[in-house]
Amino acid sequence: MPDSSSVIQFNDVSFGYDHLFTLKNISFVIHPGDFVGIIGPNGSGKTTILKLILGMLEPKLGSIEIFGRKPSDSYQQMGYVPQRLHLDPKFPISVMELVLTGRLSYLPWYGRYHQTDRDIALQALETVNIAELKDQQFGTLSTGQAQRALMARALAGQPELLILDEPTANVDPESSAEIHRILKELSKKMTVVMVTHDLHTVIHDTQKVLCVHEGVTEIAPNKVCEHFAYGLYHTPLIRQEER
Fold this sequence. Notes:
Elements: E1 8-17, E2 20-30, E3 35-39, H1 46-54, E4 61-66, E5 78-81, H2 95-100, H3 115-127, H4 143-156, E6 161-165, H5 173-186, E7 191-195, H6 199-204, E8 208-212, E9 216-219
Parallel strand pairs: 3-7, 3-8, 5-6, 6-7
Antiparallel strand pairs: 1-2, 1-4, 8-9
Helix pairs in contact: 3-4
């Protein structure tokens, strides 16, 4: 039954290619203000879930509601941060120009950015603490800086739901810590859903954990089994209490 207060609702969703289902009969609800970590072994369907939320894929069975509507009708309320941007490092685009692409859906018919768009883009860069890099070429950024630029691009769309796919993958520890700090602050203002392998962040920062492993199981962060840090996904998924 639909939950009128939900941001994301999966109802008995199945998805696959040909006759092979990657996800089968999964159901879960994410509410406004939730900070959710999605974990699971490689190939379990974590990124597929994100693409279903974004409307990039459609379920074979079941239904998905984002803010009570179809994903394709809710795209302006969502911001997406991919693992990386496949862009030629020599492509001449500045950090500010990249972030402004997060405002494309708000452009008027004649396709020119207003000062308001530039102000919002600059504010997004300030939120992720790289405003001083606004005129630098995107291809010259470090991995951590580039990831924060992609976060700023998503924030420029002023989303209510921020979706991230492995935001700290291949990022140095200092940049990773900064990204996690920023996400924790953002989670006070919007719903955040993040695929990650960083168990420390899942346990200490998120409010809810979805483990994708032969289905989807919701786990309280403090109950996540420490074996997952080593990629050892097993049943039972929840950490056993000490006797």
